[in-house]
Amino acid sequence: MMYLRNVTSLRLDPEGCNGCTQCVQVCPRAVFQMADHRAQIVSRDSCIECGACQRNCSPGALSVQAGVGCAAAMISAATSRNRRKQPECGCSG
Ligand code: SF4
Ligand code: SF4
After folding, report:
1. Is 5 helix (H, G, I), strand (E, B) or coil?
2. Tens of pLDDT along 49-93?
3. To 5 degrees, how large is the angle CA 63–CA 65–CA 70?
4. Considering its fold, how many domains does the chain have in total?
5. What ligand 1 atom has the least distance to the C-alpha of 19?
6. Which residue CA neighbors atom 6 of ligand 1 most closely?
7. 71 assigned to some structural domain
8. What is the dihedral of CA 60, 66, 69, 72, to 10 degrees?
9. Å from CA of 83 to ligand 2 middle
10. Which-ligand-closest: CA of 45?
11. Which CATH number belongs to the domain containing residue 28 in this structure?
């Protein structure tokens, strides 16, 4: 399922990938696949910026601004009576 088109902050440095497969295993949205012992982004717009891949990528080949595009924050902002309040969900720590 696509989340939002062309907005994710997810970045992958293919040269930094050691092929550990952690990102494939932890991503809840099947954003990655392995090819030739390296991770590839195959569904970028499915990324919900949860940050799990970055936290589990030991060589630092992945970066993402976790929580920036969080659906919970967007829903909270849309339904809030306080329009001056910044959207937040608390998942980014
Ligand atoms: S977690 Fe990082 S090093 Fe491991 S496969 Fe994914 S991108 Fe490569
Ligand atoms: S931030 Fe979360 S949803 Fe996005 S690619 Fe990483 S693990 Fe998958």
Report:
1. coil
2. 999 999 999 999 999 998 755 555 555 566 666 666 655 555 544
3. 135
4. 1
5. 5
6. 23
7. yes
8. 150
9. 29
10. 2
11. 3.30.70.20
